[in-house]
Write a structure and sequence with these properties.
The structure holds 2 protein chains of 2 kinds. Chain A is 40% helix and 32% strand. Chain A contains 4 helices and 5 strands, in the order ββαβαβαβα. In chain A, helix 1 packs parallel to helix 2. The radius of gyration of chain A is 13 Å and the shape is globular. The termini of chain A are far apart. Classes of the chains: A alpha/beta, B alpha+beta. Chain A: This is Anti-sigma factor antagonist. Chain A: GO terms for molecular function: anti-sigma factor antagonist activity.
Chain lengths: 115, 146
């Protein structure tokens, strides 16, 4: 199953609801393009909702890191929402859990962005 | 119910992402038949997928003239997966530590780390040309049906 992205806006924050697999050749390019589109439209506060991500591999992890640094370098913020246990464990193992700002509640996540 | 029968299957595959998916699915099936639990099976499948991606992408560079060979062997005490490519060779000593502060924000370079994290043994063998990775996960006595 490939990855799908739905984009919505809440209080000036762009939320990308991701579902499916983030792997080499499937979801990784999709994330890159989605984040690039958001930045091109002038928004740099992005919340990646990973609640429906069933699988992620090292390429997918790398793509999350690249998205994080791209947004940060543009002066914006990128946060993660609703990690599944699999994704949570992978971020722990790779010591990326503390690099990302991870939230498990959308309202809390929205209010945590710099106004 | 774990299958205690020793079995071996191997494939010679194109250097493509379809091959990566086939290798991953076979690893998952072998791990299930070997009796690994529901947490361990996806870890094995992921480790094998990472090895297959390395072979297709970094080893063979998607070269249609080069192949990936994958073998899956279930013995009484282990699941043994071998993935080989026909690329320029991989020196495991030269792979940067992805947990080092200077590498933590790199967009790649975590595949071998994850393989080592999820498997009990990982061995590299130079084939001249190519690299063979051997991934081993030990079965518990209950899993091996003994």
């Amino acid at each position: 199953m490939s990855m799908k992205v739905k984009t919505r806006q809440v209080d000036g924050i762009t939320i990308l609801d991701l579902s499916g697999r983030i792997t080499l050749g499937e979801g990784s390019v999709t994330i890159r393009d989605a984040v690039r589109d958001v930045l091109a439209k002038g928004s740099n506060k992005i919340l990646l909702n990973l609640g429906d991500i069933s699988y992620i591999d090292s390429s997918g992890i790398g793509e999350l890191v690249s998205a994080f640094t791209t947004v940060k370098n543009s002066g914006g913020e990128l946060k993660l929402l609703n990690l599944t246990k699999k994704v949570h464990d992978l971020l722990q193992i790779t010591k990326l859990y503390t690099v990302f700002d991870v939230k498990d509640d959308e309202a809390t996540a929205i209010s945590s962005f710099t106004k | 119910m774990a299958d205690s029968t020793t079995s071996r299957v191997s494939f010679t595959l194109d250097s493509s992402l379809d091959s990566v998916n086939k290798i991953e699915q076979t690893a998952e099936q072998c791990a299930q038949r070997a009796g690994f639990d529901e947490d361990t099976v996806p870890h094995i499948a992921m480790a094998v997928r990472e090895a297959a991606v390395n072979a297709v992408l970094h080893g063979n560079s998607y070269d249609t003239n080069k192949h990936v060979i994958a073998s899956f062997e279930t013995t009484s005490d282990s699941l043994i997966i071998r993935i080989s490519d026909q690329g320029p060779g991989l020196d495991p000593e030269k792979i940067p530590d992805p947990l080092a502060p200077e590498n933590i924000l790199r967009g790649s370079g975590r595949g071998i780390f994850l393989i080592k994290a999820f498997m009990d043994e990982v061995n590299f063998r130079q084939l001249h040309p190519g690299t063979e990775l051997t991934l081993i996960k030990h079965r518990t006595p209950a899993q091996s049906g003994t």
